[in-house]
Amino acid sequence: MVWGTTIAAYLFLAGLSAGAFLTSSYISRKYPKAVTVRMTGRFISPVLMGIGLLLLIVDAEAGLKNPLRFIYLFTNFSSVMTIGTYFISFFMLAGFYVALMELLKKDVNKWIEYIGVVFAIGTAMYTGFLIGVIGTVPLWNTAILPILFVVSALSTGIAGTLLVSGIVNKQVVHLVTSVKKIHLSLLAVEVFLIFTMFLITSTSNEAAAESVASLVYGEYSMIFWIVLVAVGLLLPIIVESLELINDRKMSQTNEGLQVAAAGSHSIVGTLVTEMSVLIGGFTLRFLILAAAVPIAFL
Amino acid sequence: MLDSKISRRGFIKASAATTVLVSAGTASFQNWSSKYVKASGKTEIKEIASTCNGCSSKCGIIGHIKNGRLWKLTGHPDHPSSKGKLCARGHGYATLVYSKERLTQPLKRVGEGKFEPISWDQAYKEIADKLNTIIKENGPGVVSLTEDPRATGKFYSPRFIQALGSPNYYTHHVVCSNSRDAGFFHTLGVTATSADIGSSKYIMFIGRSYGDAIRPSSVQSLADAKEKGAKIVIVDPRLNNTGNFANEWLAIRPGTDLALVLAMSHVLIKQNLYDTEFIKNYSIGFEEYAKELENYTPEWAEKLTGISADTITRIATDMGKAKPKALIEQSWRGAFGCNYENSTETGRAVALFNAMLGNIQQQGGSIIGAKSHLGALDPAKYPSPKKPELKKAGQEEFPLAYEEQGVATIVAKNAMEGKMKAAIFHHANPALGYGNPKYMKKAFSKMDLIVTIDVQMSETALLSHYILPDVTYIERDEAIESLSGKTPGIALRQQMVEKVHPETKPIHQIYSELAKACGFSQYFNFSLDELNEAMLAPTGITYQQLRQKGTIMFPDMTVELGKMPELKTPSKKVEFSSEKFKEAGFSPIVKWGEPKVSPKEDSFRLITGKQAIHSHSQTANTPILMQITKDYDLERIWMNPVRAKDLGIKDGDLVEVKSSEAVSKVRVKVTERIHPEAIFVPSHYGITSPYQKTAVGVGFGYMEHVPFDFEARSGAGNIQEVIVKVRKVKG
Amino acid sequence: MARYGMMIDTRKCVGCYACRVSCQMQNELPVEVSFIKFHEIETGVFPNVKNEIFAVQCQHCEDAPCESVCPTKATYTTEDGIVLVDPEKCIGCKYCMVACPYQARTQDHLTGVVEKCRFCVDLVAEGKQPACVSTCISTARIFGDLDDPNSEVSKAIIKYNAKPLRQDLGKTKIYYVR
Ligand SMILES: Nc1nc2c(c(=O)[nH]1)N[C@H]1C(S)=C(S)[C@@H](COP(=O)(O)OP(=O)(O)OC[C@H]3O[C@@H](n4cnc5c(=O)[nH]c(N)nc54)[C@H](O)[C@@H]3O)O[C@H]1N2
Ligand SMILES: Nc1nc2c(c(=O)[nH]1)N[C@H]1C(S)=C(S)[C@@H](COP(=O)(O)OP(=O)(O)OC[C@H]3O[C@@H](n4cnc5c(=O)[nH]c(N)nc54)[C@H](O)[C@@H]3O)O[C@H]1N2
Ligand code: SF4
Ligand code: SF4
Ligand code: SF4
Ligand code: SF4
Ligand code: SF4
Ligand SMILES: [Mo]
């Protein structure tokens, strides 16, 4: 494994951070009252991106020893990593600005937020393209992978934002039902994308077939089925579906509405699902990196 | 334009240089190389010609010295073994000079595996006193000296032991080529011919692998021959790494090479394809041999060797047709150097097969090499010790063994019987590599004095009373080495860098100083330079010239091909029938003989051989070489898939290897490249000396499974007369 | 201006590792870092077996994948077609390692820099042969200018019909005879 856990964590955090930023922008428009959720998204986004970058720096041993060299990261426009570095830089600038404004309780400049949105999307896509352009690893080298990573970025972004806001304030989570719906559909799409990707790559290429085999019934099958599929995808899909059904029921009765407003029913479900989505998001990236089998050149 | 950004890196780190210099003695090679050499990216580089000590091929090397430190080596273009190239060991073993695990001062044993440093004076005095006492009490026949003969040792070691009055000088050939040497010597008058590979049309290798047991120039000449369309046949129970060059691999049942050669000889006669002229003029006893050969049909050999009668007939016929540019390469250790009870006879049969092809001293055939004429010390000024009257121990028992080499393991046997009291080991590791280590240890424990002269804490050193630290070959001058071969020459080992450890001493100095302590300094009253000047005198070459060039060849003295020299056998001819063998109580003509032991359905024969990156036990502790073993799991034993399947063993599994002598654990390489009857064990692992931190614990020691034994004719170790069982274990 | 390249004759290679060690010494690499990696392919069933040995190092690709992905431009190609890493620019991100189809790159953990075969630029600049070529005990390696039809390497490539390991993966400058 040339790229291991550290890089998996970096890709995960970058996606999460971008997703959180997008979530909070969406919420600020759609649910102006859900202040906690918005603020949470805006705060965790640059912080997590910063942590991700730190991990990247730690993994880049030569740069760690000679930090000035990171300047060169901006120099090769044919490298996805350079492009990504720009994306992340602009995204983080915007992210920090927005967080700062939030902190100072000032109005956020719309245009800067839009720039943030654009580069957040860019960052999420970058995490997929970074490995998606690597022709040497057929498992990665598909058009689906960047989409998968964007979808996963959004879903982890939502999960991260809701998880933290839920901890801060039990009630807010139930204010943002449409986010939960989006979240559910994202998870479903993710499942679909993963298996489509497996199907397409493993039928078209030997190395990819090896990769897929190692995930589905080989070396990584335990992690794949239990941690990614069961915990990271199915569990949140089930719990979230139940919750949505439940929410609908509740919103149909008066008592239900009251309970919801009081936030007196448990948010354990939320915490568990969001947590498992995050675990799944990291595991997805870890597995995609770990199961990489390069083409056979002999 | 070439961009040289690599060396620019150097200047940045220039400040590191001084600190590293101070700690020169202990800095590991890599430490040094990453800091020091890079620190001096553009300094001038001194080139010094010398010779490699990575193995017995002693290739010519050029040392590239940066700021007084060895940087890298390249092959000497003129040296007949290197021809400009070096093997992995040649490059990597040189890092020994900066090894952390060298011997740095004289040591005295104070308990099992416990040593304390002493001064050289104390060491000399105590060793001399003990030697003199032992000799006074038992006579000089109970002291011995054993070594891997290299240039200085070849001159100084026999002289030293003779000065003590003892004839007991031995070399490592007992586990190398004693059998082949005895077979060849009594047939052709030389212990080995050399093969004119580059011009040959049909080359058969019997248990000889140029690609594994390397001498760089041999591989080059094989490549040349191949390029020219020569037919190359490899006879080996294992498809060795020279396999790529072969047109054909004969996967012979180990231990049956004699049957193959006898049957091929049979075919030559049957088809009338032998060189009758040559045999008439230059041999004796052919008729008898021809009569014996009648028994050895290809069909007979097929049953023993597993090689089809058709194949045997076809190859012998083709070789007969290609003669005299056809040969069985003289081989070295692999098939009949020291392996089986029938090995000496195999050696004879191979030499005789070549004679039947009439290829002796022919282009593309077997060459009896020429030697350079070197001078000697003036006996008036520098007296030599008397030649001892006593017979060398072992000569009685093994009169066919080549006398100069002797039967080194007799030292252990006699020690066991109380007949050998003292042993000096120079540049040799008999405790691990000559014979069964348990036996050796017990035998050594019965001696009153063991002195080991080495560069690292070998298993032999660990059993010694005194350990004397040699300098490495990178730090010393040596006596001139005479190169024999088609074209003779001379080579000089020269000091490349200053001594790293001030308390170490080169062997010529050790012997001279010890001689003084023993009371016979008159035999060592010359300097190494004086010796070398004397050796050079008749050549017309100055010492300065030789120092400059390192290797000088004498093309004028190249042997004349097509002209048969007078042989050094009793009859001065090729001996198809040997009186010497008869005198020693053996058949004068070669006859088939079984190996001593044979595997059954459920067991294997252990066979061994070299790997390109190691030399016996001496290179195992070299990190740059051992890393390759680790990267590619080279310490594994080889097993055929059919047998592996029966035993439920998969590639990479851990197994237990059990013989009459020992039990070992090791991993398996399951490969189609090996005969189902054999387990192949690479030779260089199983170091037990805890001082060799890189090597200890990697792989297992082959010799642990070898019963202590002597081949009846040559006294060789019979090191492949070993049967083992293998089973899978957990891990 | 030249376009340097090499031919490796796998029919001659005996897997002796001399090239690996001479390269490590020449380039002062740590023991664990090697620019040359060995691959074996065993085919057939006893006793009809063939064993091919491939010594693989940086193939000095044209339009090298490692170069295009390298974010710092530490990886670059000289005018002579040699793909190099500038050790003072490399951050050790390993993107190039991931991108190299031949797994020809290794990281030197002393410096953190990712390294690979340099075609011995320093020696070649002096008109000498790369260390692995000059020491190859079986003369399995030939080095020279691919653009010069009279160079030893160009002639040998034609004579032996040598081919890149994977022609479909783009042009490289090491040709193999099998
Ligand atoms: N790399 C390396 N090279 C060396 C040395 C070293 O230690 N390492 N040492 C040098 C020295 S001292 C020597 S003596 C030479 C030895 O040179 P070789 O004799 O060529 O070397 P080995 O590897 O011992 O044996 C060669 C082959 O014999 C095969 N063999 C084993 N048993 C049998 C058998 O019963 N029949 C047949 N036909 N073949 C058999 C082995 O499988 C092996 O491939 O190498 C010299 N060169
Ligand atoms: N299993 C197995 N065993 C084998 C073989 C095999 O193929 N397989 N091959 C056999 C053969 S062919 C041979 S020739 C023998 C060789 O057997 P040995 O001649 O005993 O060779 P090594 O085991 O390498 O031990 C050489 C010793 O010399 C020391 N030495 C190295 N350089 C110097 C120096 O400059 N000065 C001094 N004073 N000492 C030095 C080393 O540290 C080491 O302790 O091994 C035999 N043993
Ligand atoms: S064959 Fe290798 S180890 Fe032996 S002397 Fe030559 S270079 Fe040194
Ligand atoms: S082989 Fe790998 S390292 Fe070398 S140029 Fe091609 S991609 Fe780059
Ligand atoms: S590791 Fe160094 S050479 Fe490789 S892509 Fe990163 S910066 Fe470029
Ligand atoms: S060309 Fe030079 S750098 Fe490249 S593998 Fe050969 S010796 Fe090493
Ligand atoms: S030096 Fe030559 S023969 Fe030896 S491994 Fe390298 S390429 Fe093969
Ligand atoms: Mo030997």
From TrEMBL, chain A:
Entry annotated with the keyword Transmembrane: yes
Membrane-protein topology: Multi-pass membrane protein
GTP-binding is among the record's keywords: no
Predominant location: membrane
Domain of life: Bacteria
Keyword terms: Cell membrane, Membrane, Transmembrane, Transmembrane helix
InterPro entries xref list: Electron_transfer_protein (IPR052049), NrfD-like (IPR005614)
Gene3D superfamilies: Formate dehydrogenase/DMSO reductase domain
Pfam families: NrfD
TM segment ranges: 6-27, 39-58, 70-99, 111-137, 143-164, 184-202, 222-242, 277-297
Subcellular location: Cell membrane
Family (UniProt): Belongs to the NrfD family.
Name of the protein this chain belongs to: Polysulfide reductase
UniProt source species: Neobacillus rhizosphaerae
From TrEMBL, chain B:
UniProt keyword list: 4Fe-4S, Iron, Iron-sulfur, Metal-binding, Molybdenum, Oxidoreductase, Signal
GO MF annotation list: oxidoreductase activity
Superkingdom of the source species: Bacteria
Positions of the 4Fe-4S Mo/W bis-MGD-type domain: 45-101
PROSITE patterns: 4FE4S_MOW_BIS_MGD, TAT
Enzyme class: oxidoreductase
CDD domains according to UniProt: MopB_CT_Thiosulfate-R-like
Cofactors named for this entry: Mo-bis(molybdopterin guanine dinucleotide)
EC number of this enzyme: 1.8.5.5
PANTHER family named among the record's database cross-references: TETRATHIONATE REDUCTASE SUBUNIT A, TRIMETHYLAMINE-N-OXIDE REDUCTASE
UniProt record similarity statement: Belongs to the prokaryotic molybdopterin-containing oxidoreductase family.
UniProt-recorded name of the protein: Thiosulfate reductase molybdopterin-containing subunit PhsA
Protein source organism: Neobacillus rhizosphaerae
Automatic annotation (TrEMBL), chain C:
Family matches, as InterPro entries: 4Fe4S_Fe-S-bd, 4Fe4S_Fe_S_CS, ET_IronSulfur_Cluster-Binding
Protein name: Tetrathionate reductase subunit B
Pfam families cross-referenced by the UniProt entry: Fer4_11
Metal-binding among keywords: yes
Residue ranges occupied by any 4Fe-4S ferredoxin-type domain in the UniProt entry: 4-34, 49-80, 81-110
Keywords: 4Fe-4S, Iron, Iron-sulfur, Metal-binding
Transmembrane segments: none
Keyword Iron: yes
